[in-house]
């Protein structure tokens, strides 16, 4: 007997859903169409000033791009790792993302995909993309600098042989924390010098051609042993690279002087930097209040204002405590002037900052905006001109008003969205609608579209809605109902319905539920106070084919509204349009049935369940028992209990509700009815048809109950009789947040599930098999115990078009079924990269440092040795045919240190090793006094260190020998391209060995005659005398000719 019952039960379950036409795998193709707004958990910012693209990276590996004309794109990596560094290769369509796994992702912005991933062996602590070149400088936790070059052909990164090891750039140190904080090229000398700042505070200036440190400051001598200062941020503080500002973990901010490649006539201007450098003290110590609270300076940014001043943006916060401060100050060349600063009133710490150039559609002008990324993931904006005005007013000792802070949020109403419904309309397109007009849409980063309190202007009426394809209805926190043209993901407002004071039941409570029927033109809204509003729209254009044409009339003239007050917040709304009935459920367990035409409450009944009596779902239906069709109302409570009520009277048809053994929060209650053609849900049935009633009695209508952890199918007829007949049960892998029914092209029925982790599943009915699934990134999903509408709102139309709204931050548009695209202009609004950007001179924020102007090898060497200040030259040498990338390629393509000997000098770097002092020169008269200036004898050890930095600069004689009589075409065949580049920049080639030896022998004879103790250096001999009375320099080339420089005159002997 027991075995027979099991066989009968198994046979019955195998026949469950006979006649139900489910979705097929080929009908399903889930995909993300468009992401609008700010992704959650944002951590890093980057900006391309030429293309005007702002990038925002998140903790889960998502990167959002914002371009001109409201274009936006979402980059999703397979490795969901948070970003550590994010930088553009400007105007090249490439974005570099450094993850916390120390993987460098190379993103193609145009293709929206990863082109290459470079795995770095050490922890990356500094990442700088050199402007107008293909090189990247990477500093690691060990204190070394690695140079990568981008191969544009393959869009991959290649490590160069040239390197800067810790032993050469820092030297031996008792401090174990020697990680690189910043490795940045020096302005005006990008292809010759790089500034390296270590965490222990040491600042060194490295010469690429010299392959050694040429300047050092800071370090352990700047503070006492009991108060170490750890550098954690830095930024250049001038256009010519003579000053750098460093922020420390103790809250100190120091301004340090750095020597520049300069002209000989500006010697006096560098005396102040030399004085401070000799004493190893900063030029200026900024006292802005950070040190008092020991707030670490996490980031610094300097922007030029004029030739004499600039603005310094200072961001400090303590990750452990609650202390944070963001200040902007004027940094003048006159350090004695009083401090002018502005403290921005931020409610939370700032994680990142950028200054961007925005385009205002209304004023048709450029504006610079300060973008701040806060710890909560939101973005706030400040008009930089207002900051400048405030600081200038402070200089005049007036009382200015604080700059206005604007929070970036969805420009869809004055208050947040609390409920939403998406509906699909006509599918025909008109050619005029294919033209995308950017000025019709609001810009997220515009500071001109806000009201005084920082919110966006309310929506206005839009004509021409008869061409709309999709309609979005949003309910807001202030009780407003807005209508949007959703034909394009950049929504256009139609009109807004606000609460009127004359209404009998005026309420400004947040809307919690919306229900709209386009065929009958009835909209029902419910709010948190229990107010139901029923809108009856008039059909103004009876001949129009568009079901949304009734919305074209003037707002207020095309509808009437009726209100009903119920007990508790509205949680569920269902309609029976055949009999003009409306069912409403509240969070207190009340079920009310309202007659639509007269707006009268037929009955109100409170139902109870074991755990939670709140109503989760309501459905009108019918049940066939003994050949009699009975009208019922199915009630689903929040604890997954099911109660059938008699529709007309509201009486319970069973003694106690049916509920699962382990109750969980219910998400969806739906009836899967059947016909001879397949599945029918309760939205499509016509119970008045007699033939349908006979077929229904022969088949099994099912109740679909979806909760957070499982999906269940019950027999409808048995449920009405009080029999718990569980036909199918599927446990879910994860916590489900939302469930909805969709219909395929052939009326196949499917189930869409969205999980708290961001996964979307599409299942067929009634077998509940998984057809497809995708991971949705870029939104925050509701936690298991979060209140309703706490995070993401969901709306999925019956045609499979999905909309996910993350509070007032972002919207995600998706399509579930494999059908024609339903949104217009997708290709236009997702193309953030432009092949023909605006002229460079329009971008005020993209000031590119100019190359230093060459004035011959002799003058270049004199400038290097004297360290004078560079003139502000804005012209490049027209004779220089090679770009900075080619010049650096010649340097970086050669290994400067052998692989086996990476520590050539492990001693600490000091100023004594870098510069010659007058005490290091022994002046002695020679036995035979020559005519003209005397020749001094120099210390070999000190002179060797001085002249070693001139490697590769003095090779004129070798170049002359290489240019000996030889056919030009034959020379091009014999010499490789790499050797030609090396010859251009005076680097030794393979054929120069004999020439160097011949020159060296000749030079030894000349020195012996002159009785000058010097050091041989690649075929050149150099002597330098500096005393209080005269300055003489001797450049002795490979031919034995000595060039004597006295002051500005040159004598060849």
CA radius of gyration is: 38 Å
Number of helices: 15
Low-confidence stretches: 1-13, 263-272, 360-364, 429-433, 450-465, 676-680, 682-698, 839-882, 900-962, 964-978, 1010-1053
Give the class from helix and strand content and strand pairing: mainly beta
Tell the overall outline.
Answer: elongated
Mean residue pLDDT: 75
Strands in their spatial order, largest beta sheet: 46-45-47-48-49
Helix content: 10-25%
Strand content: 35-45%
N-to-C terminal Cα separation, in Å?
Answer: 124 Å
Count of DSSP strands: 62
Largest sheet: 5 strands, antiparallel
Descriptive terms for the model:
about 1050 residues; mainly beta; 5-stranded antiparallel sheet; 15 helices; elongated
Summarize this entry quickly.
The protein is mostly beta strands. The N terminus and C terminus are likely disordered.
Show the helix and strand layout.
Layout: H1 2-14, E1 28-37, E2 42-48, E3 53-58, E4 62-66, E5 72-76, E6 83-89, E7 94-99, E8 103-108, E9 113-119, E10 124-129, E11 135-140, E12 145-151, E13 156-164, H2 166-169, E14 180-185, E15 193-198, E16 202-207, E17 212-218, E18 231-236, E19 243-248, E20 253-257, H3 271-279, E21 284-286, H4 290-293, E22 297-304, E23 309-317, E24 324-332, E25 341-344, E26 350-359, E27 366-374, E28 379-383, H5 384-395, E29 406-407, E30 417-424, E31 470-476, E32 481-485, E33 492-497, E34 511-517, E35 522-527, E36 531-537, E37 559-565, E38 570-576, E39 581-586, E40 590-595, E41 600-606, E42 615-625, E43 628-637, E44 642-646, E45 666-675, E46 678-681, H6 690-698, E47 702-707, E48 710-715, H7 716-720, E49 726-731, E50 736-743, E51 749-755, E52 759-764, E53 770-775, E54 792-796, E55 801-806, E56 810-817, H8 826-829, H9 857-866, H10 884-892, E57 921-922, E58 937-938, H11 940-947, H12 956-962, H13 968-974, H14 977-984, H15 993-1010, E59 1021-1026, E60 1031-1036, E61 1042-1046, E62 1049-1052
Antiparallel strand pairs: 1-56, 2-3, 3-4, 4-5, 6-7, 7-8, 8-9, 10-11, 11-12, 12-13, 14-15, 15-16, 16-17, 18-19, 19-20, 20-21, 22-23, 23-24, 24-25, 26-27, 27-28, 28-29, 30-31, 31-32, 32-33, 34-35, 35-36, 36-37, 38-39, 39-40, 40-41, 42-43, 43-44, 45-46, 45-47, 47-48, 48-49, 50-51, 51-52, 52-53, ...
